[in-house]
Amino acid sequence: MDFTYDDEQQALREAVRGLLATAYADHDARRRTVADEPGFDRALWGRLAEMGVLGLPFAEEHGGVGAGPVEIGIVCQELGRVLAPEPYLASVVHAGGLVAALGSPEQKADLLGRLSAGEVVLAAAVTSPGGRWASRADGVRASVSGDAWTLDGVADPVVAGGSADVLVVAAELPDEGGTGVFVVDAADVERTGYAAADLTRAASVRFAGSVATPLGAPGRDLAPSIATISDLTRIMGANQSLGVMQSQVRATTDYLKSRKQFGVTLNTFQALTFRAADMYVSLELAHSMVDWATMTIAGGDREVVAEAADRVGLEVSRAGRHIGQEAIQLHGGIGMTAEYAVGVGTAHLEVLDQWLGNAPHHLSRLAGRVTDHELVEALA
Amino acid sequence: MQLELSPADAEFRARMREFFTTKVPQEIRDTVLEGRHLTRDQIVESQRVLNAEGLAVPHWPEEWGGQDWTDLQRHLWHEEMQRAGVPIPLAFNASMIGPVIAQFGTEEQKSRFLPDTANLDIWWSQGFSEPDAGSDLASLRTTAVRDGDDWVVNGQKTWTTLGQHGDWIFTLVRTDPEVKKQAGISMLLIDMTTPGVEVRPIELIDGGHEVNEVWFTDVRVPGDLLVGEPGQGWTIAKFLLGNERVGVAPVGATKRALAGLKTVAAAQMEDPMVRARVAELENQLLALELTALRVVAHSAGGEPHPASSVLKLRGTELQQAVSELALDLAGPASLASRAEEDSPQEGWARRSAPTYLNYRKASIYGGSNEIQRQIISRTILGL
Q1: Which of A26, A124, A351, B55 is the most exposed place for a label (fewest CB within 10 A)?
Q2: What residue ranges define each of the domains in chain A, with the CATH number in brackets?
Q3: pLDDT at site B302
Q4: What is the predicted pLDDT for the residue at B247?
Q5: CB of A286 within 8 Å of any CB in chain B?
Q6: Four-residue CA torsion sign, A36, A37, A38, A44
Q7: Cβ partners under 8 Å of residue A104, min gap 6
Q8: Where's the Acyl-CoA dehydrogenase/oxidase C-terminal domain (chain B) (predicted)?
Q9: By the 8 A CB rule, do B153 and B173 touch?
Q10: A292: closest CA among B256, B294, B9, B71?
Q11: Averaged over A101-118, what is the pLDDT?
């Protein structure tokens, strides 16, 4: 059992942190980036590709680096730290994860190779308007005529859907055949992009007889695989939230030390410092759960990963509400402003949780299983 | 980063589990697992079983019965004891005065006290807090005045847990009223049968007799029972309160208590609200346990991980939260807390109100949770 990073992992963190600092050293840079389409920095995306970050999860034979979940988690934490709007979770972890899990060797080599090289952006379309966190598609239907598949329906929100070149789409198979996953060229859909509360981008995507290629062998029910990739994405999203919360706690303590009212700095007031201490408690508890959940992935057991996703989703969502709200409150009015990172971080935490799974959702699932075990075992 | 225990640590854990579940008397373990009160004899018997196997004081120096374990192994030892319902070795002996004597004591004090302390042949009590010295311990007023080779002690200690069982008491006393308050404090070991020592019970809100006042009236203490140097008491007290990195959060016992509620209140586990509450607590306990593991894995041989201050704060909050759940699950049956033994109400339900009330202490003792927040905000966050 070991909760420490090795030298290579430390080096990866330093490298990613250094690169992100060139783009988002101050919050103004992020504000400028999200003000215009595509809502992220394509030049930075290219440098992440050159560094091998976009190909981290994928096998070398498919153009990737073949790194493990801990490395991907490190990248997500660093992205969260600076509220980077780059669609790493949506494109690499989620959509890329679906391709890596389900694609044919040719599809993997093609799509993951180009994704790793920064040549295409992928997006996963798995949620219907008003939909929740289901692994069964209900907003998009697949039809087949001979070997030719087409899709009809609407997916929304599709995170990074506006800028994506290729969509990875969950769709209902004919004859109640379950849920299939298809690759669709973005040129063959109608889409309307929009900004979420944190100004990252999502889109409403309409499929109308859109030409679709099944990912892997056609016609199988892939709901279990979709669920697993969602679980993996949930855990990586928790890593990203951890980075956000670390920045918020740091910013808040710095602010308490520097901001003066009544002629003294705010850290003179115990009413405030105790609340900062409680933020730290929430942060460290969430940190432990994030590390644990990330480490469970390496074991490769779907049920273990599903359990870990629920547990870390609940913990990080609770911590995010606490830290995100207190960060604004302890900053006072400045925390409400768009020009200051702390409140935008609170928006980012919410977008991550509502996209990937919020506290009531995960708690409901955990509550359903609560009598299936006597004790929760931290160590297998 | 790796989740699995090493083969050696997994083997270690299995060995602990085997020993605790087969060698410590079942009646004692059942008493702990059901949340009933242990007798003095049970606590002594259990510690002697552990000590005979070298498992009572593993964190002491090896020459005095300690084991050359890693912090992780100590954590596993501690967790497995709680899991098996084995009483934790008496903290006053094993965690507090033993390490102090081993570190600061004379050779004579070591050989006189340490073997008996490990084996619970001496039951130690703690004489630190006073009526006007709680969190502000350094303002203590009990005095010790030199008289020839002896010290003469006068004053009052309070909140002395299980002092009614005590053979000896380790005390902080003021030996020099002229210097800065911390610098005038010394540690004295006092035989509780000495004339002038009086233990008076304090009845608590749970109806139990757990803590006491200890009064000292012209108590004559031989000079060789001062630990370290005169004036070194504050340093020793900080060592005593700070050297426990492992076991500050009662994770295993709280997990056990929560798991027990699923069984004894099985019918109520159909209620979605109850299930949600249990699930939330299980998750919070997992986060705490993982944090404890992070701390032990980081702190081997060096400074404690900063997150260790989280453990006491959160550990006691969750201990209290589980006691609240138990009381809510007991409902009307909890009113029978002081009913006779032949009450038709179940034992766990009858104990739930006193336990709930008793655990309010947890966020007060061992450095109140407000002191913990102070430590976090000052030491960790630099506020």
Answers
A1: A26
A2: 7-120 (1.10.540.10), 123-222 (2.40.110.10), 224-368 (1.20.140.10)
A3: 55
A4: 60
A5: yes
A6: negative
A7: A215, A216, A217
A8: 231-380
A9: yes
A10: B294
A11: 98
Sign of CA dihedral A346, A352, A354, A359: negative
A204 pairs with which residues across the strands?
A: A192
Q: Encoding tokens for residue A167?
A: 């969509």
* B256 contacts A2? CB cut-off 8 A: no
| Terminal C-alpha separation, chain B | 31
R_g of chain A, CA atoms, integer Å: 21
Token pair of A335 as six digits: 């925390």
Residues B198 and B217: beta-carbon distance below 8 Å: yes
Residue B246: its pLDDT value, please?
55
Q: Is the pLDDT of residue B306 over 80?
A: no
The mean predicted confidence, pLDDT, of chain B is 94
Helix-strand-coil split of chain B, %, nearest 5: 55, 15, 30
Please say whether the beta carbons of A353 and A316 come within 8 A: yes
Residue A10 touches chain B, beta carbons under 8 Å: no
Window from A221-230, B209-218, B237-246 with minimum mean pLDDT: B237-246
Mutation target among A290, A376, A377 for the B interface, most CBs of B within 10 A: A376
State how far the Cα of A314 lies from the Cα of A325, in Å rounded to an integer. Answer: 17
| Length of chain B counted residue by residue | 383
Residue A98, amino acid: L
Distance from CA of B373 to the nearest CA of A (A): 6
Q: Which helix (H) or strand (E) holds B7?
A: helix B7-23
d(CA B253, CA B32): 9
Say whether pLDDT at B133 is over 90: yes
**B168 SS3 class:** strand
**How is residue A2 annotated by DSSP?**
B
DSSP letter for each residue of B11-31: HHHHHHHHHHHHHS-HHHHHH
d(CA A73, CA A78): 9
Pairing outcome for strands B209-222 and B197-203? antiparallel
CA A41/CA A48 separation, integer angstroms:
11
pLDDT band at residue A117 using 50, 70 and 90 as cut-offs: very high
Strand B168-174 with B124-127, pairing: parallel
- One DSSP character per residue, A261-293 reads ETTEEGGG-HHHHHHHHHHHHHHHHHHHHHHHH
Which residue of B lies nearest to A74 if distances are taken between CA atoms? B1
Q: List A260's β-bridge partners, or say none.
A: A265
Residue A236 to residue A221: CA distance in whole angstroms? 25
* Cα A170 to Cα B367: distance, rounded to the nearest angstrom: 55
State the smallest CA–CA distance between residue A68 and chain B in angstroms. Answer: 11
| Cα B13 from chain centre | 22
Who contacts A134 (Cβ-Cβ below 8 Å, separation ≥6)?
none
Two tokens, residue A371: 């009598």
Evaluated on CA atoms B125, B127, B131, B132, the torsion sign reads negative
- With a CB cutoff of 8 Å and minimum separation 6, the contacts of B168 are B122, B123, B124, B125, B189, B190, B191, B192
Average pLDDT, chain A: 97
| pLDDT at A292 exceeding the cut of 70 | yes
Q: Which of A145, A129, A128, A235 is nearest to A179 (CA)?
A: A128
The partner residues of B220 in beta bridges, in order of sequence, read B152
Cα gap B89→B293, rounded to integer Å = 21
CB contact under 8 A, A367 and B5: no
Residue pair B293/A285 in contact (Cβ under 8 Å)? The answer is: no
pTM comes to 0.95
Task: List, in order of start, the domains of chain B with CATH numbers.
Answer: 7-89 (1.10.540.10), 124-232 (2.40.110.10), 245-380 (1.20.140.10)
Separation in Å, CA of B210 to nearest CA in chain A: 30
Two structure tokens written together for B148: 């020839």
CA atoms within 13 A on the CB side of B211: 18
